[in-house]
Amino acid sequence: MAYIDVCKQSLIYEGELVPCVAGDKEIIIMWPDGGEPKAYKAACPHEGVSLGRGDFNGRILYCTAHGWVFDGRTGKSLQPEGWALQEYPLRIQDGMVQVDVISK
Q1: Does the predicted TM-score (pTM) go above 0.90?
Q2: Residue among 31, 19, 32, 30 at smallest CA distance from 59
Q3: pLDDT given for residue 103 in this prediction
Q4: How many CA atoms lie less than 13 Å away from 56 in the CB half-sphere?
Q5: Which residues are in the Rieske domain (predicted)?
Q6: Is residue 1 predicted with pLDDT exceeding 80?
């Protein structure tokens, strides 16, 4: 795996979404309440609209463009069903959040 630094660990908090750039890809780091931080491609599968400005309430991510709804723990769409955000491997090492966007 080819992990790259995307932000300091101190910049992410449980219940929040943080937009980042990993290499040449826009990603989001989502840390759902009671869960673990996860990294996803920031494009909504509907029309590729950036989710970097999505509305995240700690459990659910809402695409502000067309109202698609995603589960913050799994990245699966809740409305409409049958879609999912593209997840990237994430790890925290030496105080840095690292994501592998190359192996996918």
Answers
A1: yes
A2: 32
A3: 72
A4: 25
A5: 4-99
A6: no
